[in-house]
Amino acid sequence: MGRVFGTIQVDGKQCRTLFDSGAKNSYIVPGAAEGMARTHLPEPRPTGLGGRVRQTEEACLLVGKLEGKRIKVDAYVLDEIGRDDDGQPIEILLGALAMQKWNIRLIPQEERLDLSRYPEEFIEFAE
Questions:
Q1: Which CATH class is domain 4-114?
Q2: 42-69 residue pLDDT tens
Q3: Residue 118's CB: how many other CB atoms inside 10 A?
Q4: How far, in Å, CA of 96 to CA of 25, rounded?
Q5: In sequence order, which residues have a C-beta less than 8 Å from that of residue 10 and are 6 or more positions away?
Q6: CA geometry: angle at 13 spanning 8 and 14, to 5°?
Q7: How many alpha carbons fall within 13 Å on the CB side of residue 33?
């Protein structure tokens, strides 16, 4: 079993993404967050990631496409997330809250995603 990687397309750019159900929140590096709506946090937020605690002072609205499907996720901006198994930098980490929202399931034994339950429409209230 391995970690599940993929790409999220952001403004035409393919961003190396780690899908991590062990992380609650989502994260993005500044280069991948260029051009996105960003907000400065009122105070630095400590984030435990990759075996150490880091501070983040910014969040953004990540809008992109995953395997042709649109996604919109709140993400914290971090200078660095880490590297994949080939030593390539990870640009986006999609955490459990985002995967739950978009019904993205991990199939770790096959190192792939299951998007069969991706919501095609959102109904906030039905009578």
A1: mainly beta
A2: 999 999 887 889 999 999 999 999 999 9
A3: 16
A4: 7
A5: 32, 36, 62, 63, 64, 92
A6: 40
A7: 25
